[in-house]
Amino acid sequence: MELESQKVTVQKSQQELYNFLTDVENYEQIMPESKEKFEVKSKDTFAFALKGMPEIQLQIQDTREPDLIVLGSTSDKFNFSLDVVIGDAGENQSEAQLFFHGKFNAMMSMMVKGPLKKFIGNLAENTAKL
C-alpha cells in the first residue's frame, strides 16, 4: 500500500527541519490530537499510540542529509516505512511531504487505509505549523 500526504510549507530552512525531524523527541510535537501515548525508547526510536489503534514503534532507519528521513516500523506484524522528503523552498522555508509504504494483505489494507491517510495528513499539517 502506498500513500502520500500533501506537500506542506514549513517556516524552517531545509537543514533546520531535517535536524528537528532527526531528533525523535520532536515527533511528539507533530502527533495528531488523538495521541494517547508517546515514549522515546532510544536516540533513534519512539513508540506512540493513537485512540483506537495499537501501539506503534518507529525507528529512524535511514537518512540523507538534508532531504530524507526514513522511519520504519519495528514490528513484523505491521511492516511499513514512512519517508519524510524535505525540499528547499527559499530562505528559512522548506517543503515537506510524507510517503507511506506498507506491506499488508488486502483485508488489512482496507481496514487501515483511511486511518493511515488521516494520520500522515495530520503529521504533515502539524509539521507545517512548526
Automatic annotation (TrEMBL):
InterPro entries from the UniProt entry: START-like_dom_sf (IPR023393)
Domain of life: Bacteria
Protein name: SRPBCC family protein
SUPFAM superfamilies reported in the protein's UniProt record: Bet v1-like (SSF55961)
